[in-house]
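Q: I'm writing up a methods section and want to include an example of the input and output format. Could you take the sequence below and give the corresponding predicted structure tokens, formatted cleanly so I can copy it straight into the document?
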Amino acid sequence: MKVSRPRSMVWIGAAVLCALAVSGCGLPVEGLYPIKRDGEEPVYSKSDADYEANRKTIFGTGGIGLGGTDKPRNDGGGGGIGVNSFLWRASLDTISFMPVNSADPFGGVIITDWHSPAQAPAERFKLNVYIMGRALRADGVRVAVFRQVQDTRGTWRDSSLPSKTSTDIENAILTKARQLRNGSLQR
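A: Here is the clean output for your methods example:
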């Protein structure tokens, strides 16, 4: 059995939904906007930027932004990846002698496959490189190094490494990232 609704009810419902959606946008009206600074009484400003930056909404301070930010970004993060582009490229350059198993530029994770150096075919290494964010900082990259040694039966066994090994690789990545950044600034 089909229930039919009068067309006027559908239009009224649509109008109510539109009104709710528009009222939730929080569009400023002409006039003064209250700006409250820490420990002070509200200051009233006609600046839309002040109002937008400090208004409180259900989406948090400043509301929800669909158009991005007007602030220029100078963190070296590229538009196409989720982490610092200099650290990303420096990581790939530094570990380029090893086969890469997977690389996630949005999560900032590079995982290599096992690599045996020609000088020591009975041992192999694997790296996990983690880029921690969009800023080029000393704590912006972490490296986990794994080593295995082959026993007399041909079985690979986990083996320890000096703790300084991962720090040395991190420092090499940071040095390369600084060189890349300095090269891009000189252009």
